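Dear colleagues,

As part of the handover before I leave the project, I'm documenting each prediction I ran so the next person doesn't have to rerun anything. This entry is a single chain, and its sequence is reproduced below.
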Amino acid sequence: MVLNYIWFGFFMIAFIVALIKVLFFGDTQVFTEMVNATFEMSKTGFEISIGLTGVMALWLGLMKIGEEGGMVKILSRLVGPFFSKLFPDIPKDHPATGSIIMNFSANILGLDNAATPLGLKAMNEMQSLNVTKDTASNSQIMFLVLNTSGLSIIPLTILVDRSVLGATNPTDVFLPILLATFCSTIVGLITVSICQKINLFDKVIMAYLGGLTLFIGLLVYYLTTLSQQDLNTFSTFASNFIIFSLIISFLILGFRKKINLYSTFVEGAKEGFQIAIKIIPYLIAILVAIGVFRASGAFDYILEGLRLAIAAVGLDTDFVDALPVALMKPLSGGAARGMMIETIKTNGVDTFVGQMASVFRGATETTFYIVAVYFGSVNIKNIRYAITAGLIADLAGIIAAIFFGYMFFH
């Protein structure tokens, strides 16, 4: 429903702005430019979707091997003690615990297709423990906010899109996205923990959070000591080394489990092909709307307003052209993706703006969509502070994305 209003809004605002330009400024070319944009962006959407097919098939084939090899279960065992402390209302060995851990493990690995069904299953199992059925429980809110924080080791779709759009090094945004989503997740976790009076100084929580935060802190400190050239070299090496190491670990786990690696890969690759074909109409729909919106001039007016407001407080404004991606992401993942692609097509995939657009898209999650789907699946009407906490996490992710974007790319 949110995407429906966004899509309609793009066209209506574009039409109104175009009329104003014709009536008050005599710009008779604006409607021609808008119509041309519909054809151009339709072509772009189709070309991207076709180019996406091969890369998507490759990665989903590899992910299928990792899933069948037990990578999700390994992650579940690693984070189990931590999650039991964050969800104190869920009894030990309750089915909800397993679904929660499996959902987060799938999210971290970028297995979106597996993560959503597991998330809906977890929400239903938590609902069985919920005393007030139309009101979100503490466990459900914690679960939802951690989902909206968007922590992901492999931002698969972003890396794939950058590859298809011709990035020299599609994985150059890997570390900035990882660091930004870490900040978003920590802030979301702290926000909900304060509301629910969860003791963050518990020794188990401190061991997990303290250890991870220390590692991230030391990494950031080390990165600040590097020159821009050395930072780019390190980022390129680390990103590609981590991703290829994960691929090798998937293959080793699959081989150890004695699964047929080739057949499993093909099975996953078929799913990747089907997904790439399915997204064609959705991608064209949102790209055409954004293209018309930009061609009307409305997009430029909004960007200039943001630029003036940010400059007024003394901040650098180079990232402003990518900021609409960040503003769109909490509302709709599809719209954010379309905005990122359109921004990259306009500014270039390897420019600072193109890189920032990619980091912004990966730094947060589709908060309103997740709230609607997850709470809607169990008929919860009173969501309490879930959206507020989710948006606080999103804001932290956006701020972190700006910080790390400048550190790595500016």
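The chain has a mean pLDDT of 86. Residues 134 and 380 are 4 Å apart (CA to CA).

All the best with the project,
I.
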